[in-house]
Amino acid sequence: MRLLAGLRKADRCLTQKIAARTAPGVHKTLSAVEECAETTKLWCSAAAAMAWAGGRRGRRAAAAGLAALAVAQLASNGLCKQLADRPRPPKEWIPHDEVEDRPASSSFPSGHTAAAAAFTAAVWPTWPVAGIACALPACVVAIERVQSGAHYPSDVAAGAVIGLATAWLVRHSPRLALRQLS
């Protein structure tokens, strides 16, 4: 129980600090990147650019990224949010009006972060340069989800874990399936 109480206290403290200490220019940048990531537009656009410009390697990276993103979305939004039903951070903690524009669904886990981490982690092994290029907006999305009051830091951390796990699963599932068939 002490662990959960400590986690709640850390979530509150970090959420309030991140939401309150963002400069106006940074706040606008975070919001713009998050808007691009809404409904996975950013990651689908990145996949299209990789497939168009990257040849065979770009198509493989794009396919892996989109597959991992789809599995992460199913796991985070389709399963975990239905089971957790955690309320969003209290509006009183967020000192700006962006808190009014947040979803009504469960806060746990962050589906945006799960998608961003899954896409980036799945692209990285096939095309490291593209993975590095995706890592920056993925981090920005994760920070923005806390800054906007949509998620607690623990929601974002759980979303990142789900994203990394689904990227690993997508990358290794063909080998695991072949091993089972042998």
UniProtKB/TrEMBL annotation:
Keywords: Cell membrane, Hydrolase, Membrane, Transmembrane, Transmembrane helix. Pfam families: PAP2. Gene3D superfamilies: Phosphatidic acid phosphatase type 2/haloperoxidase (1.20.144.10). Its main location: membrane. GO terms for cellular component: plasma membrane. It is a multi-pass membrane protein. One of its GO terms (molecular function) is hydrolase activity. The keyword Transmembrane applies. SUPFAM superfamilies: Acid phosphatase/Vanadium-dependent haloperoxidase (SSF48317). It is found in: Cell membrane. Residues 63-171 form the Phosphatidic acid phosphatase type 2/haloperoxidase domain. Residues 86-108 are annotated as: Disordered. Residues 86-103 have a biased composition (Basic and acidic residues). This is Phosphatidic acid phosphatase type 2/haloperoxidase domain-containing protein.
